[in-house]
């Protein structure tokens, strides 16, 4: 069984500013700080933020399944502002997923507004097809909102004084 879920958030921010956070490793550094209830820790296993980068994501205590998962960046397209992360081991597989891919697209060329489109593409193994695991875009929606709020706060602070 295959499926996909999407969420879109209008940011009111320039796409370049949003991609600056999502396009590399900064988003992984920020989420545990901004949303410890979503991810408690994100560690770089290998890579520099480009294709092939592997992260170890630790979930908060009490999360069903294993406490962590690894994800690999399989696409980082700076020109079109698209990033795809494929879960390679851990929590999602424990719950019956055979494939779990997250795609983040920052849409909009307008200097004033952009949209964060978060998509999950998943496949469930045959054993769980009759009673599939729950997939939800609510976590990605929460992350998108927190990142947009973070960028807005940073812009209000202005550049650091030298």
From TrEMBL:
Residues 5-153 form the Bet v I/Major latex protein domain. It is found in: Nucleus. It comes from the Eukaryota. Its main location: nucleus. GO terms for cellular component: cytoplasm; nucleus. One of its GO terms (molecular function) is protein phosphatase inhibitor activity. Pfam families: Bet_v_1. GO terms for biological process: abscisic acid-activated signaling pathway; defense response. Belongs to the BetVI family. PANTHER family: OS04G0593500 PROTEIN (PTHR31213:SF189), OS08G0374000 PROTEIN-RELATED (PTHR31213). This is S-norcoclaurine synthase.
